[in-house]
Predict the structure.
Amino acid sequence: MPTPKRALRGAALLSLLPGLALAQTTLPAIEVEGRAAGSLTAPPVEAQRRALEQAPAATRFVDSEEFQNRYAATLREVLAETPGVFVQSRYGQELRLSLRGSGIARGFHLRGVEVLQDGIPVNFADGSGDFYQIDPLALRSAAVYPGGNALRFGSSSLGGAVDFTTPTAHTAEAPNILRAEGGTFGTWRLSGQASRIFGDWDVLGTGTVMHQDGWRQHSRSQYEQFNANLGYRISNNVETRFYAGAYIVRQQLPGSLSLSDALNRPRSASAAALSGNQARNVWAERFANRTTVRLAAGQLDVDSWLTHKRLYHPIFQVIDQDGLTWGVAPRFSTEFQLGGLRSELVLGARYFAGSNDALQYLNNRGSRGALTAKGVQRAENYEIYAENRLWLLSQLALVTGVKALRNDRAYENRLNGQRFSRSYDGLNPRIGLLWEPRPEVQVFTNLTRSQDVPDFSDQLQTVGGAPFWVPLQSQRAWTVEIGTRGRFERGGWDLTLFRSNIRGQLLQFTVDPSIPAGTFNAGSTVNQGVEFAAHVDVARGLLGAEDRLSFGQVWTWNDFRFRGDRQYGGNRIAGLPPHVLRSALTYARPEGSITPILDWVPVGAWADYANTLRTNGYFKLGLEAALNVAPGITLFLDARNLTNKRYVSDLSTLANAAAPGANTAVFYPGEGRSVFLGTRIAF
């Protein structure tokens, strides 16, 4: 009799067979009349927006048109106007991405948020990840699903998910797009996109090369990114789409500094970064497929993916890894009548796994020295989920859902023969209400349970220069939120209040800035806050019939605290500032636009859980401008930090900065004054 684990694996693999069979079937030549326009696997952008806004939750949608006329080098520029999303730059494309306190204390890479590309996971099988394969110039839209609101993708972490959608030939803004940019710090970037539709086939490819000498010492970077997809409409009701990507990253690391150096010598690199020639070099390839079948009873989508990543990462030691991640995820959606009421149901499953050869060597000025660790990391995930939306009234919907999961983690140390493993199980329900008094206005509330499983960076902590297995618990939370969003003729709003009661929150603290932080499970903590965004046309027809003056405001309030902790009492959890605001005033007319921008952090973030050291508050002034010089040709300017303000953009966390011998060099200085110019040609 098969074990439950094998049965789940077999069921997940069998779910892929219908899509594979359809993709391999040769159908007889027939004439089809009235074939639906567009793509089954990649709906139009407006359809994506409408589907997201029907969720009874604080979901947000970003169209690429919102950031196409700025120097969008990282996801910070993509998500700059999205409330509740904290994105701060350390150097190059190394970022801190946090939603509602996810990864609040993680001083490196990604934790607690699932990053998706075209609805397919980018994270590795253990939940960790980074952002290097997300090219902002290869995006058509982005959708943010905080917390349990990402259940429709199978995600149930505290931070939720962010889905970055690449264009297809059906959704691209133009068949050909060329872009060239340059600016301060030795920055240049070239990008090209081409797409074509050939009957039942469509294809699109985007390639980008970017170089920066870097604002700080020892922060030079070179990125080469390629994304492509090929779609085939097998019949009026069946379509398959293949995705491929290749990514090369060469990034020098400047390291973190003391607060004094970050504010007074911000362009310097740390001594450890220089002596160890620290860097992060990545070679990655990604292949994925989505096959969509429209049935009489509903729609079946089957996703499958394979990602290979090679990492050469000299830091405190040389981290040398080579890993594969693979998975399959079927999802069935349908609409039916239940007791005379309209009901919308989504059923899904995901199986994804990965294996990573993890070697470590002494760092000999960036080269491999003696071998210190030879391990194999293996992760497997089995998930099933369901979500139902029942319209009790024409304007009121009840949303219920649940996810069951089993996550297996195993590590083998081949130097000493030690083996460690742990499994995590969970059942995460949700319930919500959506009220639509008018088509353009929504009020919603929901209660969700989230669960975050430690990744290998959490479980394998460095002790005596070697990895040491720590059997951490998963992080569990109940989150309640209430909010409203809507549009009117001259503007719109988005407001959400949330509160998460968390047990075992995964927090990090730094012992040595050159060594990955140790992780521990906190006791009882609370993450709560406000996410607000609004925009309004202040005036129209000022200097012409088609011009307008618009004001936009984004405000995120974070109040994250310990609750009766034996060591920290009710202190604030270190890592994020309590208030983050962004104000923009735009004057726009058909010939172009100009936008002064104010980024304001009134009070800096605590750097330690004892609340003895915090960063400075700051404000930054910026200016964006665009000029349409001819049909399809745009010139743009992106000027940042015009007053050359010195500030801390991000930090790692400490237990107690005032403790004797505490090393407080955990701060990353923000970039100084910069100006970027670019042109975009679409034809």
About this structure: The longest helix spans residues 4-14. Residues 4-25+34-682 form a domain with the Maltoporin; Chain A fold (CATH 2.40.170.20).
